[in-house]
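ARCHIVE CARD
Drawer: 12
Card no.: 0347
Subject: one protein chain, sequence and derived structure
Cross-reference: see card 0346
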Amino acid sequence: GSNVKVQAISTGANVTGNLGVSGNATVTGNLTVNGTTTTIDTAVTSVDSLAVDGDITAGGKVKVGDDDGSKSKSVKLGDDDDLTLYYDGRGGYVTSYIESDQMIIRPKTTPSDSYIDMLHGGSVRLYHGSTTRLSTSATGVGISGDLSVSGALTVTGTGSLKVPVGTTAQRPTP
């Protein structure tokens, strides 16, 4: 077998075995790492583009910052950027680009429950537990359960106000 560890080739050098660098190493072309990189002992301060085939695990927060002075940053999820989390310096936005255009916000502890279910061009439902408490439709808003109003309740429009049937003892007096 050959004991050659460094071999000069027309495009640079091939190194067989471990390569130790005690100073800075500058790579002006592409860097390809085959195998498993288990440790990077320093912070990576700048990456123009990063493509990862697999999971990313972060021990701290993942920040999409505005170090370049631009406040418009987004995180895109899905094969076709189906879900976008976006911040423009004034407000935060969550945008869904999936075909059904439905977005559901669920709690982590009980993922079968929903907090909010929104359908583009359609209904919005707000939940308490697994019960729909407020829902919108093309004709208005539906409320399931009691409506508690602090202050004046003003009803406008040409429709009617329906009061449930009951005895006068069950209705408050004016």
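Annotation on reverse: DSSP finds no helices and ten strands in the chain. The first strand starts at residue 6 and ends at 9.
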